[in-house]
């Protein structure tokens, strides 16, 4: 088993006034050659956007982009004609493929929006761009895993062009779960603590810490307090 621990306070910190973003991996002006990616997981940004502000229209190509709102409402528009609002409990995926442009704005004028912006390298280049979003039942992750993303359009959650599975869970203090990798020969898991304190394979983790684990078949998870986690199983080789 191999692991890499990224404590919350070691992340890149970019404060643009309207946007406060914490970067787990190198992004924009934050560059650390030891923190370029975890397998095909390229970007994990923890974003806070001020009321009425947002990201103007900009392009992407050949990237799988996942947005998970944590608080507030995020308004999306893109060159495919999609106009939508995503909120806490939703998950959004954008397969950029041959190329798209999009914008993301805080829909509200009186409160900030908090969301995770996640990018992954695809396993197919130059696919037809695609947009999707779904609303999840938060209670379905209470003391169990709720799959929110997979490679299969017919499976639970959204899907992307990659051999990846994302799960969320909300654990009460003292509860334990084990996560078995779908593809342990090729994949690793990046665990991100949304709230609380947890022990993963004997490694203590706190609010907004991240832990990458690979060359392992299963993770043992114990909640040291009420906690909420995002687990991202991704291929380790691109």
Automatic annotation (TrEMBL):
Cofactor(s) recorded in Swiss-Prot or TrEMBL: Fe cation
GO MF, any single term: metal ion binding
InterPro entries per the UniProt record, alphabetical: Pirin, Pirin_N_dom, Quercetinase_C, RmlC-like_jellyroll, RmlC_Cupin_sf
Domain Quercetin 2,3-dioxygenase C-terminal cupin, first and last residues per copy: 148-234
Residues that coordinate or bind Fe cation: 58, 60, 102, 104
Note on cofactor: Binds 1 Fe cation per subunit.
Gene3D superfamilies: Jelly Rolls
Boundaries of every Pirin N-terminal domain copy: 11-119
Keywords in alphabetical order: Iron, Metal-binding
Pfam families xref list: Pirin (PF02678), Pirin_C_2 (PF17954)
UniProt similarity note: Belongs to the pirin family.
Record-given protein name: Pirin family protein
Phylogenetic classification of the source organism: Bacteria, Pseudomonadati, Bacteroidota, Flavobacteriia, Flavobacteriales
């Amino acid at each position: 088993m191999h692991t890499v621990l990224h404590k919350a306070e070691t992340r890149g910190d970019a404060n643009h006034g309207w946007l406060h973003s914490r970067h787990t991996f190198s992004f924009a002006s934050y560059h650390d050659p030891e923190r370029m990616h975890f397998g095909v997981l390229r970007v994990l940004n923890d974003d806070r956007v001020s009321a009425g502000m947002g990201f103007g229209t900009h392009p992407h190509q050949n990237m799988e982009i996942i947005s998970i709102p944590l608080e507030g409402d995020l308004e999306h528009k893109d060159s495919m004609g999609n106009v939508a609002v995503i909120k806490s409990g939703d998950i959004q995926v954008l397969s950029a493929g041959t190329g798209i442009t999009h914008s993301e704005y805080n829909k509200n004028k009186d409160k900030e929006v908090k969301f995770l912006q996640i990018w992954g390298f695809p396993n197919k280049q130059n696919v037809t761009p695609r947009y999707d979003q779904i609303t999840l039942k938060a209670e379905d992750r209470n003391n169990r895993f709720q799959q929110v993303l997979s490679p299969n359009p017919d499976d639970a959650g959204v899907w992307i062009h990659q051999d990846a599975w994302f799960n969320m869970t909300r654990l009460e203090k003292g509860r334990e779960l084990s996560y078995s990798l779908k593809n342990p020969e090729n994949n690793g898991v990046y665990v991100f603590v949304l709230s609380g304190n947890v022990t993963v394979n004997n490694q203590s983790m706190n609010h907004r810490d991240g832990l990458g684990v690979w060359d392992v078949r299963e993770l043992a998870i114990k909640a040291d307090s009420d906690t909420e986690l995002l687990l991202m199983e991704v291929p380790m080789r691109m």
